[in-house]
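Try this one yourself first.
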């Protein structure tokens, strides 16, 4: 086999490995990103629930102040009842007292609703806090692990690239540049196998019988007429 063909085949094998590693390098951080999105959304839920809870407690406080103010009024009017002179005054005071008692009953109903909501919110908050802490931990562990994996893969790619540089020196510079251009623009494939049925493994084009004969001789560089990839005979 022509030496150039042997080198080109080896270069392609190195590029296949580089491509596989690069794909993995770009895939891994997505796993971490999904975990980060999950725990961030849980963190956001905790924040929202906390705000609703704070609002709920403010409303409860406000209603409690209203009840206490109504009770003070009721006390005051009941004391005044002891000293009233006329029936009209008596009726008016009693009406005020009744009105405030009714008002307090309404407020107490609302307070109970708020307290029920408060207990639901507290439970939800606890649930999301636990989820968030668990998933944040998971994210941090996974991130550490994946950062390490990416680092190892990057080192591997650098090693493969330097192996490629060494190998490239064994073929004419022009041929190597042509090879590399196809790697860059042809989905990482510069060398294709001419399959036994006469089709190029790179583009599935069926080549002329003459090309098949020339490729099988393995003594010069033959390219696919359709995709320009360098054709090599099957093993
Ligand atoms: Zn082709």
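Now uncover the answer:
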């Amino acid at each position: 086999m022509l030496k150039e063909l042997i080198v080109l085949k080896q270069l392609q094998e190195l590029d296949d490995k580089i491509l596989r590693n690069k794909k993995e390098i770009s895939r891994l951080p997505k796993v971490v990103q999904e975990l980060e999105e999950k725990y961030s959304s849980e963190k956001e839920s905790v924040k929202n629930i906390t705000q609703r809870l704070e609002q709920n407690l403010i409303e409860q406080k406000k209603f409690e102040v209203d009840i206490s103010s109504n009770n003070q009024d009721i006390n005051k009017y009941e004391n005044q009842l002891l000293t009233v002179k006329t029936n009209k005054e008596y009726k008016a005071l009693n009406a005020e007292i009744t009105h405030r008692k009714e008002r307090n009953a309404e407020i107490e109903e609302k307070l109970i609703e708020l307290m029920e909501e408060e207990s639901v919110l507290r439970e939800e908050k606890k649930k999301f806090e636990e989820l968030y802490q668990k998933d944040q931990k998971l994210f941090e562990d996974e991130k550490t692990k994946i950062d390490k994996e990416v680092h190892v893969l990057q080192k591997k790619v650098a090693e493969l690239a330097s192996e490629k540089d060494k190998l490239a020196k064994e073929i004419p510079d022009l041929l190597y540049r042509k090879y590399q251009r196809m790697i860059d623009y042809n989905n990482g494939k510069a060398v294709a196998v001419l399959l036994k049925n006469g089709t190029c493994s790179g583009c599935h084009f069926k080549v002329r019988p003459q090309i098949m004969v020339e490729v099988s001789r393995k003594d010069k560089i033959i390219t696919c007429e359709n995709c320009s990839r360098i054709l090599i005979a099957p093993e």
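Discussion: The first strand starts at residue 191 and ends at 193. Strands lie at 191-193, 222-223, 230-232.
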